[in-house]
């Protein structure tokens, strides 16, 4: 029998709605199971913890071969249709509507829940520098900015998960 997981470190690198939520759901689920959890936001995933961006994440409609209409089990949507103005906003609206039915919280509230449950929230230093971000740009739940080396050091003994 394998040993139970005690600690997870989740890397969130995509800034789309469907790119951010898996990490949030996994971190929250880990905390609810008593598993230590940290989230490391890098590249466009960083938008999930930037105050001005976190509630404006959209569904990626271009280059998303899994996107189907009218729902997840419907017909595949040709990528070219994703380029139509308003398509991303429409897909985002539909996704958020379904998430509301399941009582899945908005990004900011989810980040707050994870932090309140003892999860740690980190930002990637290289990305922070590349995007010219300052501490005041982040939500208050962001614990600190880490280099990749610091992330690995803090993740010692963790299952590292890339979403």
**What proportion strand?**
15-25%
Give, in order, the helices and strands: EHEEEHHHEHEHE
Mean pLDDT: 91
> How helix-rich are the residues, as a percent range?
25-40%
Which homologous superfamily in CATH is the superfamily of the largest domain?
A: DsrEFH-like
Name the quaternary structure. single chain
Distance between the termini: 27 Å
Sheet with the most strands, sense and barrel status: 5 strands, parallel
Pfam families: DrsE_2
Protein name: Peroxiredoxin family protein
InterPro entries: DsrE2-like, DsrEFH-like
Structure description:
With 163 residues, this protein is an alpha/beta fold. The protein folds into two domains: 113 residues, Hypothetical Protein Ychn, Chain: A (3-Layer(aba) Sandwich), CATH 3.40.1260; 49 residues, no CATH class. Helices cover 36% and strands 17% of the residues. It contains six helices and seven strands; from the N terminus they run E-H-E-E-E-H-H-H-E-H-E-H-E. The strands form two sheets. It has a five-stranded parallel sheet. Strands 3-4 form a two-stranded antiparallel sheet. The longest helix is centred in the first third of the chain and has 16 residues. The mean pLDDT is 91. This is Peroxiredoxin family protein. Pfam families: DrsE_2 (PF13686).
